[in-house]
Amino acid sequence: MVSTVQSAWRRLDAYLERRIRQRVTLRGLGFTLITIAIGVAAFLTANNLLFLLLALLLSALLVSGFVSRLGLAGLEVDLELPRHVAARVPCPATVKLRNHKQWIPSFALRLQGSPQSGFTQPVFFTMLAGGGQARVPLTLEFPRRGQYREDAFEFSTRFPFGFTDRRVRVAIERDLIVYPSVLPQPGFEQILQRLEGEIASRQRGRGDDFHRIRPYEHGEATRHVDWKTTAHTGALQVREFVQPEQPQVEIVLDLAIGAGQMEWLEEAIDCCAYLGWSLSERRAPFRFRTQLCDLRIPDEAEVYDMLRFLALVEPLYAASNVPDPRFASNTDEALVVLFSRRSGTDPRQRPDHGTAREA
C-alpha cells in the first residue's frame, strides 16, 4: 500500500514538474493573509461592504493567476550555437523566442537554463507581442565535455501583480557535442614548449643537406662542431643541416584506468585536446592514438575529428585485458607524448602531465 501511494505521488510530481509551477512571493503571501482576514471578518459581521471587498480581492487573485498563466502559454524557444563548442570556453549564442499567441502578448518574461544548459545568467524579455519573436545574444559556457541531447529551460514571470512566481519548463531536443577544454591548464604549456623545442632542434640539427654554419648553443652535440671555422673565429661554430621533413609527433592516450582514476583521465583528455589544438594552429602534423582510434592529422583527418572523439570517449576499466597503445607505433622518427597510468604518470603530481620520448 505504501509503495503504491509513493509511486502515485512520484507520477503526480513528475506530471506537475512538466506543467506550470508557481511559488508564492512575499507580496502574494501578504495579500492572501489580508484576503483571509477580511473573509473571516465578513462572515463574522455579515457586513455587505466587507463581502464586496472580499469579492474584489478574490477577483484580483483569480485574474493574476489567469493572466500569468496565459502569458506563459504558447511560447517557443530555440538556441543557435556555433558549430564547434569546447567545455569551459565562453561561446556566443543567440536565443530565439517566439509567441504563438496571435493576439495576446506576454510580459515580463525571464528565461533561465539548467546547470547543464551552459547558461551563465538569465535572459529577460520585457514584452513579446502576439505572433512576434525576439532574438537575444548571450554567452554560454558548458561545464564539461560530452553529448548534450536535451537542455531544460525554464520561463518564469511575476506579471501582473507579483503575487506568484509562475514557471514553466520547455526542452530543446538537439544533438550538441561539446569538445574538451582547449584552454591551457597548469603544466600544459610546459609540455607544449618542450615539444616545440624538440621539433625545432630536430629541424635545425639533423638532415643531409648543409644549411649554414652558426655559433654553438649550450647543450648541442659536439659532433656537429666545425673545428676549422672554430679555429678561425675563436668561438665554437657548428654545422647546421636542413631537416628534409617535419618530424612526426605522436600523442598517445591510454584509456585503461583503474577505479577512482576518472579525474586523471579527464585531465589527460583536456591536455590531449590542448596539445592537438595547439599543434593544429601551428600547422604541425601529428598522430593521435588510443586503443580505439588512430588519427593522422591533417593527412587523414581534421583536428575536429580528434576533439569529437575525445568529447565522447569512455574509459576502459579492464586494464589487464586492454592492449597498451605504446607498442602499436611503427613510426621510426617520432616524438611521443604518452598519457598512461601504467607508466606511473600522474598529471596532478608531475608538471609535464606525460612522458615525451623518441620511438
Features:
359 residues, 6-stranded mixed sheet, 7 helices, 16 strands, alpha+beta, Immunoglobulin-like, disordered C terminus, 3 domains
Query: Helix amount, in percent?
Result: 25-40%
CATH superfamily of the largest domain: Immunoglobulins
The assembly state of the depicted protein chains is single chain
Q: What is the CATH topology descriptor of the largest domain?
A: Immunoglobulin-like
**How many domains would you count in the coordinates?**
3
Largest sheet: 6 strands, mixed
Concise account of the structure shown:
This protein has 359 residues and is an alpha+beta fold.
Please characterize this protein's 3D structure.
By secondary structure, the chain is α+β, with helices and mostly antiparallel strands. The protein has three domains: 1-179, Sandwich (Immunoglobulin-like), CATH 2.60.40.10; 188-206 and 244-358; 209-242, no CATH class. It has helices at 2-18, 26-45, 48-72, 188-205, 227-233, 262-281, 303-312, and strands at 21-24, 75-80, 85-86, 91-99, 106-113, 123-128, 133-140, 146-157, 164-179, 209-215, 237-242, 248-253, 286-289, 294-297, 334-339, 355-358. Strands 1, 3, 5, 6, 8 and 9 form a six-stranded mixed beta sheet that branches. A five-stranded mixed beta sheet has the order 14-13-12-15-16, covered by helices on one side. It starts with a helix and ends with a strand.
